[in-house]
Amino acid sequence: MNPVLKSWVDEIAALTAPASVYWCDGSDAEDQRIKAALVADGTFTPLNAEKFPGGFWSRSHPSDVARTEQCTFICSEHAEDTGPNNNWMDPVEARQHLQKLFSGCMKGRTMYVIPYCMGPLGSPLSKIGIEITDSAYVVANMRIMSRMGKAALDQLGNSNDFCRGVHSLGQLEPASRIIAHFPETREIWSFGSGYGGNALLGKKCFALRIASVQGRDEMWMAEHMLILGLESPAGETIYVAAAFPSACGKTNLAMLEPPAAFKGWKAWCVGDDICWMRPGPDGRLWAINPEAGFFGVAPGTSNKTNTNAMAMVHKNSIFTNTAMTDEKTPWWEGMDGAPPAHAIDWQGKDWTPESGTKGAHPNSRFTVPAGNCKMLSPKFNDPMGVPISAIIFGGRRAKTAPLVFQSFDWQHGTFVGAAMASETTAAAAGAVGVVRRDPMAMLPFCGYDFGSYFAHWLKVGKAVKNPPAVFHVNWFRTDADGKFLWPGFGDNMRVLDWVLERVAGRGESEKTAIGWVPKASSLKLEGSGVEPAAMKELLHIDRSLWKQETADIENFFGKFGDRMPKEMHTELASLRLRLG
Ligand code: OXD
Ligand code: MN
């Protein structure tokens, strides 16, 4: 037994006073025992064994259905290192507060110790975490979302290089909820929530907030990006990484099915949410998906939007806060077919289509093992990862941002990412549909100040000889009646095709004030149903809107004071000049 790990676990047990301590080994037998216990205490309802074998339905507390950014803190030693992009708490004060909260909080409960590996086992890019939790629901989900159990413990050996995470459901009281990160000591303390993003500590807390700091210190990047491989009919696969804010379609794009016009093309999913990238010896950026499963937003998922996801959820999956039909199958708004005549909704109440309420919570989720996805990349477990040729930023913008543009170079691309904005979604508690600046889709996830984060991006760009080309997309542009102009989903392949063409040094485009914009004729639109007028609108750059945009960007950049790299101000000034 790793002595450092053992003494830390003993220390947490002494603080939280559980009835027993259980070390997870990650075995099938253990998984079955955990799930049986969750069924016995009513947390899990087994789903229809024929249609959803190994599937379970679960509901969380109605006040605990999304990430809670206002309760999420970065407790770095110096407030400046946290930056205005995060909530800061003095680490000394935070520790005093947490000691009180966690003192005796596991009385009468089992304390689970979950060793887990983020990234392929044996990969030089992988990292080990240990999550201590009093939630069996967390154990069952972590088993899907990470390489969990004995294999992770073996990989750790006697090293003390692991991310320490302590989680307790507490009494699920929103008032005492806190998710605190200590970047210098690579620690996470989460209290009062069982929701995925707050409680599965390997995901947002470690793989993004703590890992972004490790990446800064060790010269790599932890990003909120999907990773997708696109294989041409000639058999060449190009990998792209794409950052979109939460619930803006990352899972759908990661599982894209090329439309009929792209005969012979294949898409391969490497990851749908998180990407760790490192400069490789060949001067490119190499990426792994640290996760082992998908924690996707259920509503809106259908055979039209994501046929691969619809197929993969049928086995060994956990559904949280969806509705459940009388034949014990999960249901959500936007699913194919007519709604069920009767279901149990996400709050456990009887529901019918006439209820006038949502059957599934807008942020209800499926937790699915990666191996269920039939287009999972053969490189998914490759310890070396995959080389990234393009990075794509995207937001949900009704206006302003065109369907796609390419930045002029890495520095300009970093600016494009830093200036990203999107309408808010149900993935976080709070108002939905409000435009907020969300650089690199990392606003809720960057574990240090954005000024230094942008500087790190610039530094990585200088360290790699062949950095990826950087693009920006917007699938969500609307016409004067508020209707989407672009069909999205599988048709996004038409935009990715242009991206690949540009990477190959082709792809006709026009130099505009904001970057390279495709000529409508260079997009393969056959079979898309997009009319030339809509296409013109989708690629139109409205100078007056962009001038307003620069004012907003300037305001936003101003928040980061002298930590903001001067290159970002230079890029903004150049954009203004180009806009005239
Ligand atoms: C997620 C999120 O769950 O971004 O992936 O909120
Ligand atoms: Mn996410």
Give an overview of the whole structure.
With 580 residues, the chain is α+β, with helices and mostly antiparallel strands. The strands form 6 sheets. Strands 1, 4, 5, 6, 7, 8, 9, 10 and 11 form a 9-stranded mixed beta sheet that branches. Strands 12, 13, 14, 15, 16, 17, 25, 26 and 29 form a 9-stranded mixed beta sheet that branches. A 5-stranded mixed beta sheet has the order 2-3-19-24-18. The N and C termini lie far apart (66 Å). 29% of the residues lie in helices and 23% in strands. The chain folds into 3 domains: 216 residues, Phosphoenolpyruvate Carboxykinase, domain 1 (3-Layer(aba) Sandwich); 272 residues, Phosphoenolpyruvate Carboxykinase, domain 3; 35 residues, no CATH class. The site of manganese (II) ion has 3 residues, from loops. Manganese (II) ion binds next to loops.
